[in-house]
Structure formats: C-alpha cells, structure tokens
Sequence to fold (641 residues):
Amino acid sequence: MSIIQVRDVTKVYNKEQVPVHALNGVSLDIEEGEFTAIVGPSGSGKTTLLNIIGGLDEPTEGTVEIHDTKIFSMSESKLIDFRLHHIGFVFQAYNLIPVLTAKENIAFILQMQGRPQKECTHRSMELLKMVGLEDKVDKRPSELSGGQQQRVAVARALASKPDFVLADEPTANLDSASTANLLDMMLRLNEEESITFIFSTHDQRVVERARRVVTLVDGKVDTDEERTEKNIEH
Amino acid sequence: MKFWAILKLSWKNVWRNPLRSTVVIMAVLLGTWAGIFSTALMSGLSMQYIKNQLDTSIAHLQIHHPKYQEENLPRYYIPNPDSLVDALQQYDFVQSVSPRTVVQGLASSTANSYGVTVKGIVTEMDTLVSDVHEYLKEGEGLAETSRNTVLIGDNLAKRLKLELRSRMVINFQDVEGNLTAGAFRVAGIFDTPNSVFDETHVFAKQEDLGRLLGRSHTIHEVALRVDDFKQADAYRDSLAQTSSLQIESWGDVSPSLRYTDSSLDFVLYIIMVIIAIALTFGIINTMLMAVLERTQELGMLMAIGVNRLRTFSMVMLETLFLTMVGVPFGMLLSWATIQWVSNVGIDLSAFAQGLEEYGMSTVVYPQLPEGYFLNIGLLMLVATLLAAVYPSIKALKLNPVQAIRKV
Fold:
C-alpha cells in the first residue's frame, strides 16, 4: 500500500532570475515498510525531493500525498503539526540539540506532541535501548561520537512512531564502522518494526544494502530498481 | 507539557554560553542599578534644592496684603496680624507660623553698598519656619537684650567687607513713604546652600524694624510651614476661602521652583528611558548573535515540528530569564546603595561654588520617590523584552530548509 505518492513534482529555484530546475516532473510511490535509497550525482535533486516529501519545501508544480492527504494543501501550521506527528527526520549533521542529553533529545519530540512525562521518559529509554545506546542516556551530543549521535538522531526520528523516516545523507559524516553499525540498526528496525526509511545518499555502502534504489539524474527519475534478497549485500 | 519543554530548553539555552549570559545579566543588572541610582541621585538633588529654597527663604505658604507683591511698599502691611496668626494656628495642617516685617533697602558699610531684603522677625517663631538660624557660622543670633542687631549672609559680609560686630547702615522707606535709616551691628553671619540668598537677605529683630518704620508690629508677610509642602496649593485654596489677603503657595511665589518639582518626574523617566534604550541595543545584539549562531539548530527544530510560535517563545523566554536574573539583583543592589548613600551622603564640595550659586547643597542624599522602584524595574523588564522581539522575529522568519543547510 502506498503511503507516499509523489506526482509530477517540479521544483524551480530562482524562478525570477536564472531559473534552476532541481526537479523535473518526478513521480514516485513509496510503499509501507520500504527501505529506499534515492541516489544520484550532486545536483540531481535528491535533497530537494526529500525536502518536498517531508513538507519542508513546496514544489513549484505537482502534488505530494501522504496517506491520501495532499500535504501542500494544508496551512503552514497544520503542515508543521503534520511533520511532528507523521514524519521522522534524520539529518546529515545529526542536528541534535546540544544542551539536551540523549534521552532529552528524544523526549523533546514527544513533549512537543503533548505526551505525559512518564510516557516521554519510558519511550526515550526504549528507543535508546533499541539503538544500542542505553548506557549513554545522560550524555550530551558533545560527549558522543558521530555514529552515536546519528543513532540518537534515528531514535529521535522514531520517537513519535512516524509513518516514515526521511534521512538526508545519514552516513555522510560517518566512518566505515559507524556507517555499517547505523545501517545494521536501520535495517533491523525496518525488518523487525516495519519502519519505512527513505534516504538520500552518495554512499555506495548504503546503496548496496538498500531494498529499492531510485536514481535521479538532472531532476528526473532515471532508474527505479527493486532489489531482491539475492542482490542485496549484507 | 509543550510549554514546559520549551521553558526547560530556553533555560538550558541561556547557559549554553555562560560567559555571554553572565555579561548580559551583568549589563541588565548594572543598567537597572544605574537607572535607579541616577534617578535617586537626581531626585535627591532636586528635592534638596526645593527644600533648601523653602526652608531658608520661601516657606511653604506666604500671606501678604493684596497689593504688597505688586509694589513691595512698607505701607501695604497686614491688618490685625495677631488675630490672623491665631486663626492660622487653628488649622491642623499648619505646623508653624512666622509673622515678618519685610522691607527693601540699601545696606551700606564703609566699603560698599548693596540692595537687600530685610526681614524683621521674632526669632522664636521664625526658627520654626525657617532653617536660616541653623546655618549660622559666626555669632549667636539676634539676642533679646541687644538693640539693632542683624544677621547677614557670608556673601553680603564679603561684599560689604563686614565681620562679626561690624556696623552697617540700612536705608529704606517707612510706612509713610519717607526715607529712613538705621545703624545695625552684625550679630551673626549665616552661610546657607543658596549663595544668592546669602548675598541679598538680612534678618533683624521685628521691634527694631518697627521702630524705624514708624509703626510698631508692622507685618508684611506671614510665612507658614505645613505638614506636607506638596499639598501647599490645596492648603492655599482652603485658607483663601476665609481671607481677603493674598495667600500664595511656594509654587506661586517661585514658579521656577514649581516647574523644577513638576518636571522632576519627566526628567527622571527620560533618564531611565535613555538607559533602557542603551540596554535594549546591547540585548538585541546579544540575542541576535544567539539566534544567528543557532540557525541550523532552529531550522532543525522547525523541520521536526516545533511551530513558529514556540520558536518565538523560546527566544523570548531566553531573554526573559536573563532579565529576571539581572533586574531583581540590579534592584537589590540599587536599594542597598541608596540605603547606604542616603545616610552618608555624596560629598560634592569640590563643586561647592557652582552648586551654591544654584541654591544646591554640597552634600547630596539620594532618595527615590515612592513607586519609582517598581516602575523602573518594570521599565527595564519591558525594555529587555522589547529588545528580544527583533531576534525572536528573526528566528521566526528562518526557512527550515535553508537554515539546516547553513554551516
């Protein structure tokens, strides 16, 4: 069942002066439980597509539906609230709140949703355990390695039990070991918890383990490859 | 829960850069202190100036013959002054009354001559209205037993080259309009904070002046001290209902003094507003830095679902926390400073000459008018919160996509 439907999405930056066509009529369906990599050379429109799917950037033309809801028909405040409840974000630079501990960073999302303190604490601890950082509960981001920070970021993205997680170049700042660990963890969550992951990447190590690879070239879908167990490298 | 999370995050953000936050808190603290203390200093200076004028020369209320203030002639004396004094003493708000004989004359010594106002007083009554006797620096005042003695100011003594027990002659008109003169011996020299007053006023015994005026017990002025000089206009109106004499409050006698008093509030608030504006720009600068260096983080917060109102509130709360620490401590420090300095005073004797020309004391005792303490605290609070609005709006206008990309 498609949870995301992207239809004929075009994004033109700098329309008034020198127009830059970041996306040219992209259409894409994402099914529940997918582990999808969006790949392509720099400037191909990967991040723009993720931003549009995440409701952070509005397309010049076309529509994005999430669970049959046209997200760009919503008011700005409703869209922000929609992101809070339905979408998890993981950023390249981790983007944790530096003054909060690992547990507090995760709990913050839940607090923003108005969940009771007890639930926030319980869920944060549960997620930290899930990402293997139960011993780093009270550590601040500056006390964690890059890989550990990105695991906290994934835990934060999962805090609100979102419909899907968008990850923009999640391994770009990580070494090989941390990349492998993060991918193992994301795949486990995908398999065991049926969490849908959509991520943009340049990283061949990530591409090799994706179940579906969408390649963008010049703002268009060049190839869309479903991977079978056989050709996924573990 | 949502607000609590934003509140908690704001508080933690305040201590993200402890040095910068401490500097802002110190700026707020010192701004509050400077505002309150300078207000108290200005207020102390002005109130002392007004009180000096009232206690040495003007008193709180004056009563004259209706024509006296126009022409200042000795023939315009108050009829039946004793019954007037008795009637005035019946009022609850009247603390003391001094009937005075007042003539304009020319004081001469062997060295020089100078125009003066001579006030004929009964010492026991006048000391309850005027503080001039407390400023005697030489001599012992107007003795009952000695005839034709005077008290003069030290500036007049210098001008006429007079010393204690020197002789001087004063020429003036009697009640019939004829010229008369009397020889007086200097029994005391006073030095009030008002150098102009010291140069132009002479005090003599009422009976001595009466003799020279050709009419004993000639009263031109009844000076009153009341329980609250700020109520002088109301008391004037109350007294005027039962008298045909000219009754004037100190503000009527000296409009410039009334203006000083009435403009004091305005001047004090202007000082405060100037300090608040300076503080505001300091806070705008700091909070703007705090927002700009966190662009990526703020963008991330907006991306993951923190709405604009909460982002705005977060920056506002950060400023509020800084203010809530700085303002109370600033108020406490200023209260302690004023308590201490209002007892020991600030010695400005280095500027004595200039200050005395304007009738001001050389030792200033800062005092804060009622209500100012809270008003200034609130003003500082409002100023700092207003200062936070621009950086908060800046945060509000961030585009999450661009902000996240910013390194």
